[in-house]
Amino acid sequence: xxxxxxxxxxxxxxxxxxxxxxxxxxxxxxxxxxxxxxxxxxxxxxxxxxxxxxxxxxxxxxxxxxxxxxxxxxxxxxxxxxxxxxxxxxxxxxxxxxxxxxxxxxxxxxxxxxxxxxxxxxxxxxxxxxxxxxxxxxxxxxxxxxxxxxxxxxxxxxxxxxxxxxxxxxxxxxxxxxxxxxxxxxxxxxxxxxxxxxxxx
Length: 201
Hints:
This protein is α+β, with helices and mostly antiparallel strands. It has a 5-stranded antiparallel β-sheet with strand order 1-5-3-4-2, covered by helices on one side. The chain has helices at 95-104, 127-130, 179-190, and strands at residues 40-46, 86-89, 109-113, 117-121, 156-161. Strand 3 (109-113) and strand 4 (117-121) form a beta hairpin. It contains 3 helices and 5 strands; from the N terminus they run E-E-H-E-E-H-E-H. The longest helix is centred in the last third of the chain and has 12 residues, at 179-190. It has one domain (40-51, 64-198).
């Protein structure tokens, strides 16, 4: 059977233009997002990699340091931290809260680990994280090969950013990052520690 030559467009994933399948008036303003808007959608539940698990404490002690350096200098071929290599938040434990945190850090993937830990990740499309040609599969979620978890437990609840990118990544208006965050992300990608003062602007 010959494959379809076109698919229905989705205004959730890309800007719609006038056409037989999408009808958006020219010049129509996009409604402003409210602070509580959810800019992510659920991808699914996945198994964690062998030996991986939450590192947040089981009690309610709040961990303020979110700059997880586990994947700094990672050289193994398999994904680090099950493909969510950036940040660790021990208080944003609902899927939406985790997504909001990750978006504020410029990440387009979020994952809640066994309801105890929030991690962030960057897809290959997120050029704000990978810059030019620095994409590393071992630091990204392997969506094509990841094993779905079909039972009642959800070891890794994965969500992704679904709105259009701007300048290669999630819009800057959603971010609360500073030079320390930039140095942290660049350090994980580079594989060695970069001081904040080394960041170029």
